[in-house]
Write a structure and sequence with these properties.
This protein is mainly beta. It contains 1 helix and 10 strands, in the order βββββββαβββ. About 15% of the residues are buried.
């Protein structure tokens, strides 16, 4: 839940799918490396029994860190990642029957596993005006 007692910062400009500018800088106490969460405000949720408003759905659009801090603005880079699945390859080692008997070898399967790569993800449809939540360490 968004804490209303703190100043709320917002996305001021989208530079790229993985880079944004927010409306707070060192004047607001931000420093290089600070971590943030970008939140979009979704539809209002109504309790089906009481018809009471339960609030608006908060849509997490990504996590980031400050990579450049100026007086009143900061540049944020997305830090979300995805690990691709490991790749498994199997190679059958074979030879002639005579070679296998002479050297005491039997047909074998040799398995290689290549670890999946870490892929950096973009923010999820961030737009100017989305909320910026400062992550406490």
């Amino acid at each position: 839940m968004i804490q209303m007692d703190k100043k709320i910062y917002k996305v001021a400009r989208v530079l790229a799918k993985d880079k944004i500018v927010i409306n707070g800088g060192y004047e607001a106490g931000f420093k290089l490396g600070d971590r943030v969460k970008i939140i979009g405000i979704g539809e209002e949720i109504i309790d089906p029994d009481t018809q009471e408003s339960l609030g608006h759905l908060e849509l997490v659009k990504g996590n980031g860190k400050l990579i450049h801090v100026q007086e009143k603005i900061s540049t944020v880079s997305c830090t979300d990642t995805y690990k691709e699945p490991d790749k498994r390859t199997v190679r059958k080692e074979t030879g002639t029957i005579g070679t296998m008997i002479a050297f005491g070898r039997v047909p074998a399967e040799i398995e290689n596993i290549t670890p999946g790569q870490l892929v950096h993800l973009p923010f999820d449809n961030v737009v100017a005006g989305d909320l910026v939540i400062i992550q406490e360490e």
